[in-house]
Structures are given as C-alpha cells and as structure tokens.
Amino acid sequence: MTPLPGHGVPAGALVLLRRGDRASFTDQEELFARLFAARAGAAMSAARVFALQASITDTLMRELLPPTLEQLGGVEFAGRYRPARDGERIGGDFYDVHSAITAEGEESLAVLGDVCGKGLDAAVLTGKIRTTLRALLPMAGDHHRLLDLLNRTLGDNADARYVTLVLASARREGATVRLRVTCAGHPPPLIVRAGGRVEEADTQGSLIGVLPEIESVSADVTLAPGETCLLYTDGIVEAKGGPLGDAMFGEERLKQAVAECANMPADAVVERVQMLASQWIGRGTHDDMAVLAITAPRGQHLAAVGGHGRGRYTA
Fold first, then answer.
1. Is the residue at 114 inside a domain?
2. Does the structure show a pLDDT above 60 at 302?
3. Domain assignment of residue 313, yes or no
C-alpha cells in the first residue's frame, strides 16, 4: 500500500494485492509501485484542479454570453452573435434587452455595443459595461444622461479602451411600436418598412470612454406591424470576402439584405443577416459580429419572403 500524493492533500492510495501462494513484493517492485503512485497522484490532482477551473470558467462565461431574446412588453427582440475567433464563445461585441420603468411608463431598453479589441480582454470590459448599464437602468428614460454616466465610468478605466453603443427604448402603443434611438460613435440602425424601403435612423453621438464630455442626438421612430429596426456592429459591414476574398460586405449589401426581410419576424431577420455575412466571409478571418432586431409583431406573418401564410405566432 502506497499513498497517491497530490497538491498538499493525498489523492488516494494505491493498494496492490498478491495471492498467498506467491512470493512477497521485491524491493524493485515496491520502488516501481511508488513511482507509479507518484505520477498517478499528480495526474489525478491536476485533473481535479483543471475540473475546478473549468467549472469556474463556465460559471463566469455564462455571465458574458449574449442572452436569449424573446418578446418583451409586446415587442419582438432577436439577436445573433459570432466572435472573431470561431473557437471562442465571447468577444468585444454584445447586446442586451432590459425591462425599464421610465416617466412614460414601462418600456424595454435594447443595447448593442462594440468594445475596442477582441478576445478575452475585450470580453472582460464588455462584462463591466453590461453590469454598469444594468445598474443605470433607472436612468433609461434619459439616454444622454445614461451615456454620460457610462462615459465617466469608462473615463476612469486605466486600460484606455473605448466602446461604441446604440440604445433603443421600445414601447408598444396599440399595433405600433415607438422607439427612441441614440447612437454613441456607432453606425445608425436601419429601419425596414413594410414595403421593403430601408431608412437610417437619424441619430449620432460621440464615442464612450474617450472624451470627458459626450454629445448625442436621439431619433424617434414608429414601427408599423411587420416593420423592423436593425442594430448591428461594424463587423457585419466590414466583413471581407466575396468572389476574390478581399471585398467588404458593405452597407449597400446589408441594406439590400434587410430590404428582403420586410414583414419577417425578428428572429428570421437576424438569422438571414448573419447567414449572408457568414457566406460572404467563407473561411476568411473576420471581426466580432452582432445583430439585434426590434420588430413590431404582426397577427399573421409571411411564411417566406414574397409568400403568404396563415400561421400565427404569439404577440
């Protein structure tokens, strides 16, 4: 019998038995058993440590992964995210949807952002920003104040990273959805009308985490049933690929893609945009990509683009 040594605590014991009619263990066999036990104990102890680290990583990772979106307050929300490195699950792009109480009553606050950088370092800052925004939800009715407080928080950050953001407050009014949209250094959202016309929301603002003071201009948008507001990060339009592998997907292709999504549910819109961007990239490298759709629900929706259907979904 010999112990299996571990990191400060034995990992167990190795017990070897021999039949009574056979000779006892020789000194060489006992030495071999002790060497085997030492290596086995170290391996078992390391496996235990790695299992603990994996459990901790998985717990922390769940807080950084994009949430699963659904209808909230009678408004459809859907999102898709693809990190820059296919082997990773997190990165610098993010989105969230929160239920918030404002002076106008209860509404939903959708947030989509892009942190400078990629990988784990960007994901850590992403987690901090999402937590800060969650704490600032009582200010959700005033986009400029919320962005200003976030800007002050990031201004004290030693790593000098910045973030671009777009906020969208959504409230159901009868069959329509009223939006208040504010960009902070981010591409303006696209509005897809029921007839297929695509518009840019008239909003702009400065980066978060760069200057002591920020500027922002909000836009009010009304979505009729079947119309969608699409928020996206620059990883979509700057994705390089195509026949020669070096052409950007670009804003015009994105607008054409979303124009074909008129009257489609939010989940179908983001699925199509993400699919087309991924097909354009092929096996090439790309930045983080995130899209978030806000849609005014329809009592009936089209079964496919240009098609008709009687299927209903929950409003």
1. yes
2. no
3. no
Same domain, 77 and 199: yes
**CATH code of the domain containing 186:** 3.60.40.10
Q: Is residue 311 part of a domain?
A: no
Number of domains in the chain: 2
Res 159: pLDDT: 62
Domain assignment of residue 6, given as a range: 2-61
Q: State pLDDT tens for residues 225-283.
A: 999 999 999 999 998 988 888 899 999 999 999 999 999 999 999 999 999 999 998 88
- Top mean pLDDT of 50-59, 96-105, 263-272 is at 263-272
- 198-200 and 240-241 strand pairing: unpaired
Residue 307 included in any domain: no
Categorize the per-residue pLDDT at 52 as very low, low, confident or very high, splitting at 50, 70 and 90: confident
User: What are the tens digits of pLDDT across the range 156-200?
Assistant: 665 667 899 999 999 999 999 999 999 999 999 999 999 999 999
